[in-house]
Amino acid sequence: MLPLVILLSFSVVAQGQFDPNFAPKRNVIVHLFEWKWTDIAVECEEFLGPKGFAGVQVSSPAENAIVTDPPYPFGNRPWWERYQIISYKLKTRSGNAKEFADMVRRCNDVGVRIYPDAVFNHMGSLANMVGTGGSTADGVERSYPAVPYSAEDFHTSCLIEDWNDAAQVRNCGLFGAPDLNHTLEYVREKIVEYLDHLVTLGVAGFRVDSAKHMWPSELELIYGKVRNLNTKHGFPENTRPFFYQEVIDVGFDVVSKYEYTGLGAVTEFSASYNLGHTFRGNDQLDALANWGVPWGFLPSNRALVFVENHDNERGTSGDQILTYKDGKPYRMAVAFNIAHPYGITRIMSSFFFEFTNIDQSPPMDDNQDIISRIINPDGSCGNGWVCQHRWHQIYSMVRFKNVVKDAELSNWWSNGNNQIAFARSGRGFVAFNNEGSDMSVNLQTSLPAGTYCDVISGGKDGASCTGKSVVVQDDGTADIVIGAAEDDGVLAIHLKEKL
Q1: What CA–CA distance (Å, rounded) separates 200 from 208?
Q2: Catalytic, out of 43, 246, 268, 488
Q3: Is 198 helix (H, G, I), strand (E, B) or coil?
Q4: pTM, whole model, 2 decimals?
Q5: What gap in Å lies between CA 438 and CA 482, rounded to an integer?
Q6: Which of 240, 307, 375, 408 is the most buried (most CB within 10 A)?
Q7: Residue/partner pairs of 390-396 with CB below 8 Å, 24 or more apart
Q8: Which residues of 453-491 are buried (b: 16+ CB within 10 A; e: fewer)?
């Protein structure tokens, strides 16, 4: 049995790992998938900071194998090459170590935290290690001299053939990638050294890739060794990094998401699937009345919730998932996810891709360098970048979440079908219409009397609204109208949009 002082010490560390370390009055993380560090720095200063975003999940900053075609059928430089790590040097198509450090500093300076995608379950697949000189084709020799790792630092070579065998899932190679042996102290030390480097540069935490494929007991040892956050970047003393772990478990997986909740937050994929299923019209919105833990989801403070992520938006989960390609129902689902108090909210910001090539590279030039996004006159992005975070309907809901903060959900209403509404008690109100007829009903908003501007169709501009306005009566009720033919099936008001 461990001494009580050690148990208490780990308890304090673990509790700290659930806090995203957001700056005050900020609540939403955006994944700027495959962005360059220099572009993220500017986006933090010019948009994310002023619009109240809490953080950015960034692609892995560790050096990866370069995957080219020929001979690979998926084309040059697929997005997933960033998960084919060959060293812990900060050198990728997103930029170098100096640019990464500058980005983190500039984002922290405007209240936006950085959470890098941390890949340390495996190293780059031997079949994809183009020009690294690190391995033989048969996979017998596994050498990554820049770390360094040798063959002795990996599990015995094997493939995951039985996904119902937890030992195979955690000890065999994911898609053929050499699987690190985390029982070895040396391997854990090299991983901690890498994470410590990123913490020193000012990151607030990590998205732990493929956590499902590592034993929780070994992750506990790694997380517990990582240093506290850097006070020179504005974090209080003794602040622990935030860990949110990728565990795909939708209720029938041999590896359970609940095995990881004692270590940090966990990606709640069931929320993604259920939001897509419901807002696609496959179930009534009325069913969302108790959305959250009663649906078999994780406890709210352990769950990272999202409509889509970089994997499942590419069709890897059938047609359940909503993406930027789905227009109105997608925007409705994102609005619901942000407005609802359940979980820690992350939104996706994609680049354009075709379902016929789900491995498609991020926008790149003839030299295979990532192309920067351009900002159009209307504030949207160009050069192949979707930038959902710049859509008015989405960044306005980010502000909604910042205003309602931790106000409880109240005044739930439904027409028994596909029209719903709820309040965030005394601070905000939101309504949804996902059926083929107009919504026109008098509802309790919980808000003080006055005229409010709908943040979906417009917003407050001086003493008037650029979109819809909602008049709340002395008793807190208001007439809520959402036409079936409107571009957005959502209406949202909050205290900061009161005229």
Answers
A1: 18
A2: 246
A3: helix
A4: 0.94
A5: 6
A6: 307
A7: 390/47, 390/349, 391/331, 392/456, 393/331, 393/334, 393/335, 393/456, 393/488, 393/490, 394/331, 394/334, 394/335, 394/338, 394/347, 395/51, 395/53, 396/455, 396/456, 396/459, 396/492
A8: bbbbbbbbeeeebebbbbebeeebbbebbbeeebebbbb
At 206, which helix (H) or strand (E)? strand 205-208
Per-residue CA distances from 170 to 13, 166, 209, 218, 302 (Å): 25, 6, 13, 11, 22
Catalytic status, residue 165:
no
Whole-angstrom Cα distance, residue 255 to residue 213?
9
CA nearest 291: which of 429, 435, 422? 422
Number of neighbouring beta carbons within 10 Å of residue 139: 16
* Nearest of 105, 42, 89, 31 to residue 375 by alpha carbon: 42
DSSP track, 427-445: TEEEEEE-SSS-EEEEEE-
Angle value at C-alpha 361, between 113 and 116, nearest 5 degrees: 20
The residue from 209, 218, 313, 497 that is catalytic is: 209
Task: Give the burial class of 308: count Cβ atoms within 10 A of its Cβ; 0-12 exposed, 13-18 middle, 19 or more buried.
Answer: buried
pLDDT tens digits in sequence order for the chain, 499 residues long: 333 333 333 444 455 689 999 999 999 999 999 999 999 999 999 999 999 999 999 999 999 999 886 555 556 889 999 999 999 999 999 999 999 999 999 999 999 999 999 999 999 974 544 433 344 333 445 899 999 999 999 999 998 999 999 999 999 998 889 999 999 999 999 999 999 999 999 999 999 999 999 999 999 999 999 999 999 999 999 999 999 999 999 887 899 999 999 999 999 999 999 999 999 999 999 999 999 999 999 999 999 999 999 999 988 555 689 999 999 999 999 999 999 999 999 999 999 998 888 889 999 998 999 999 999 999 999 999 999 999 999 999 999 999 999 999 999 999 999 999 999 999 999 999 999 999 999 999 999 999 999 999 999 999 999 999 999 999 999 999 999 999 999 999 999 999 9
- Nearest CA among 379, 407, 383 for reference residue 393: 379
Task: Output the six-digit token pair for 80.
Answer: 């997933």
Catalytic, 193? Answer no
Strands 316-319 and 439-444: unpaired
Contact indicator for 332, 48 with CB cutoff of 8 Å? no
